[in-house]
Amino acid sequence: MSDPLRPPHAVRPVTALTAVLAMLLLTLSAVPSSAAPRPAADPAAQAALLTEGPAVTSPDGTLTLAVSVLDGRLTYGVSRAGAVLVAPSGLGLRLTDGTLLGGDVRITGHRTRSHDSTWRPVWGADAEVRDRHEELTVELRQRDGRTFRLVARAYDDGVAFRYEVPRQRGLRSLEIIDEATEFALTGDPTAWWTPRDDNSDENAWRSTPVSAMGASNAPVTFRYADGTHLSVHEADLTDYAAMTVVPRDGRLHAELVPTPGREAAVVTGTGRALPWRVLTVTQDAAGLVASHLLENLNPPCRICDTDTSWIEPVKYVGIWWVMQQDQATWETGPRHGATTERAKRYIDFAAANGIEGLLAEGWNEGWGGDWGDQSFTRSTADFDLEAVVAYADAKGVEFIMHNETGANVENYEAQLDEAFALYERLGVNYVKTGYVGDIPGHNHYDQYMVNHYRRVLEAAAEHRINVNCHECVHASGEMRTYPNALSREAVRGQEWDAFSEGNSPEHTLILPFTRGLSGPMDYTPGIMDILWDPQRLGRRVHTTVGKQLAYYVTYFSGLQMAADLPEHYRGAPGLQFIRDVPARWDRTEVLAAEVGDHLVTARRSGDEWFTGAMTGEHARTLRYPLSFLGAGDWVAEAYTDAPDADYETNPTALAVTRTLVTAADTFTAELVRSGGQAVRFRPATRDDLATLPRLGAATANP
Ligand code: NOJ
Ligand code: CA
To answer: pLDDT (tens digit, 9 = 90+) per residue, 469-483?
Structure first.
């Protein structure tokens, strides 16, 4: 097939401040366009920039965002503990009428407010999230009389700002060609970025100094020389085009994904706030992963007024990897994957192993030929939808519907209500969507498509349906507002190991600090038969089995796949961990982290804790204290790369140990290259105390 299934790749600033800004800008304009922005030479001047004029400082006093106008241009800067992270950077919107909103402007007033509340997500990494911030609203007037506002917030784990444009005479609608928002990072931090592509988030991640960075999709993550981490992204992406991050003239620029054939990337009404531009700033890499900043910057839940019991994270198996490896087809024919018989077999496997869902791809009419006439309600002759759903239901398994639009968005929208009504009638609460191919007249992440993905989430909620969107626009913390957005792709996931040279060990360690920050991620872990290469094309998964298990804890998702074939789980020692690990969490702690290198995460679910430890291309030994455990004795059931494991030559060698531990112990994860460790900690029973060795005793861990 010409593979449609596989994506192609009020105060005028005081005089002293004006002088400081001028000096900084002079410094910056002297930087050649290919070089990275440099910090101002004089630290005292940097500090002055951030203590004068309208500014907002985080509750803990560490982070400051200062706003000013320099030569008529709206400008901001950011400092952490007195060190400038973002030198004076331009703000504004370029409109189709030739205006640079923010270009010939003065501050007419400003006000501040404090906020401190705690909210409980329907599901998430933590059962409670604190939203504590300081907010600054700056009133602005253009020379032509038009007004707008900049709203800025400072949290302990980052700063954010957004434009608000009131309804007014002379500005009834906003036609935005692009933003004039800049991020002039100081120094030359390390950047983790992924090549800009307005139709794909499935490129490999890269690591270079900012000065060597190319145009990137968002988020992008940076590490400064002093270890400070900063990630640039957006939140509350509503009726707008997605943001990309593009280096030009020695600084980074927010650029919007265009709509083909239209001058304006965004056409929208006034009287609204635009998406937040967010800089998550933490003292280390672990802080980034622990942050809830993007969720805090999205509105509270819009679909939680009535019963939310249908919004439930689950693990699932799928008639899927077998097609990715070309041992069955999505299309009907002698090798059709989604048959009633196979679905029942997979459901039996799921039910026997406490896996709550089954995905069946290629169940419906219209695959292969002209995607335009695909049906989302009629199943193929060899797939009895009602019988399969009833069979799953009888076994306590959720059926996960698959809607591959083949990029025919119009055809999908035309059937959306009817299809979702059918799914609701059948009792189906989960849908995986897909948008493989070129969308006629649109980019995957332009304003129309951003709105489309939102429409699908809203329509799904009306029918009690959770969504896992593939080829979707990047997540931006909307799981707070639409918790039925249980997962999404927007990542070069594990499927690439089946049909390309695959994902590098480092790629999988960059993800939690970049893509992973934006929201739940359907990476599709759980391959046990790592070397399975039925096509004999030299394609395979580039990890050990231990790392596949660690993903269940380190990669956050409301839908966690057990991606391998049922027959490959038979006899696999790792299956027990997949049975035990939950998809729903109550608390998360990041125990050790370095972008691209390693990550150790601990998560609690009910009265059990789980840890996942994983490494990139280097073997390493990680030690972490078990102080997160409660009092008493615990059993640590550890699944670790065996000493002779190697991700290239011996990836399935796994050591399974059971030892007694307490919160006073330190645990060890001895990891081989691209390896991992997954541990379940459960309260010890009397029997365990009588039979199991203590950690460090005769059978050392592992
Ligand atoms: C690409 C998706 O990412 C993958 O999961 C799916 O199997 C194919 N499209 C077919 O819809
Ligand atoms: Ca995909």
So the answer is: 999 999 999 999 999
- CA 32, 38, 43, 46 dihedral sign is positive
Whole-angstrom distance, CA of residue 567 vs CA of residue 428: 26
Mean residue pLDDT across the chain? 93
What's the pLDDT tens digit per position in 622-641? 999 999 999 999 999 999 99
Position 46 confidence tier, pLDDT thresholds 50, 70, 90 = low
In a domain, 408, yes or no: yes
pLDDT in tens, 256-271: 999 999 999 999 999 9
Q: What is the pLDDT of residues 406-421, one digit of tens each?
A: 999 999 999 999 999 9
Of 264, 296, 328, the one marking the end of a domain is 296
DSSP sequence for 613-662: EEESSS-EEEEEE-TTS-SS-EEEEEEEE-TT-BTTTBTT-EEEEEEEE-
CA distances from 396 to 127, 389, 391, 524 (A): 26, 10, 9, 22
Q: Which of 232, 267, 296 is the last residue of a domain?
A: 296
Ligand 2 center–CA 471 separation, angstroms? 5
pLDDT of residue 23: 35
Q: How far is CA 633 from CA 397, 613, 624, 628, 690, in A?
A: 34, 22, 17, 13, 12
Instruction: For residue 324, give the ligand 1 atom closest to its CA.
Output: 7
- What is the residue with the minimal CA distance to atom 7 of ligand 1? 320
Q: What is the distance between the alpha carbons of residues 225 and 450, in angstroms, rounded to a whole number?
A: 36
* Mean per-residue pLDDT, 101-130: 98
Q: Which of 658, 665, 612 is nearest to 636 (CA)?
A: 658
User: Comparing C-alpha atoms, which of 572, 560, 574 is closest to residue 603?
Assistant: 560
The answer as to whether 2 is a domain residue is: no
Residue nearest (by alpha carbon) to ligand 1 atom 10: 5
Q: What is the phi-psi region of residue 227: left when phi exceeds 0, alpha when psi lies from -120 to 50, beta otherwise?
A: left
**Whole-angstrom Cα distance, residue 676 to residue 234?**
31
Q: Cβ < 6 Å from ligand 1: which residues?
A: 5, 320, 361, 404, 434, 436, 470, 489, 495
Catalytic annotation, residues: 495
pLDDT confidence bin for 306, thresholds 50/70/90: confident
CATH code for position 289: 2.70.98.10
User: Residue 551 and residue 676: Cα distance in Å, rounded?
Assistant: 9
Whether 234 shows a pLDDT value over 80: the answer reads: yes
Residue 42 has pLDDT above 60, yes or no: no
The confidence score (pLDDT) of residue 15 equals: 30
Q: Are 603 and 609 a contacting pair, CB within 8 Å?
A: yes
The DSSP code sequence of 20-76 is: HHHHHHHHHHTS-TTSPP---S-HHHHHHHTTSSSEEE-TTS-EEEEEEEETTEEEE
Lowest mean pLDDT among 26-30, 379-383, 542-546: 26-30
User: What distances in angstroms separate CA 338 from CA 309, 317, 318, 361, one per listed residue?
Assistant: 29, 13, 10, 6
H-helix or E-strand spanning residue 498: helix 496-499
Confidence at residue 370, expressed as pLDDT on a 0 to 100 scale: 73
Residues with Cβ within 8 Å of 311's Cβ and at least 6 positions away in sequence, in order, are: 122, 123, 466, 483, 484, 486
The pLDDT, as a whole number, for residue 53 is 74
Cβ–Cβ < 8 Å for 49, 66? yes
Domain span including residue 278: 15-296
Q: What total of structural domains would you count in the chain? A: 3
First-last CA distance in the chain:
47
Residue 7 within a domain: no
Q: What is the mean pLDDT of residues 596-602?
A: 98
Q: Ligand 2 is a single-atom ion; what residues have CB below 5 A from it?
A: 470
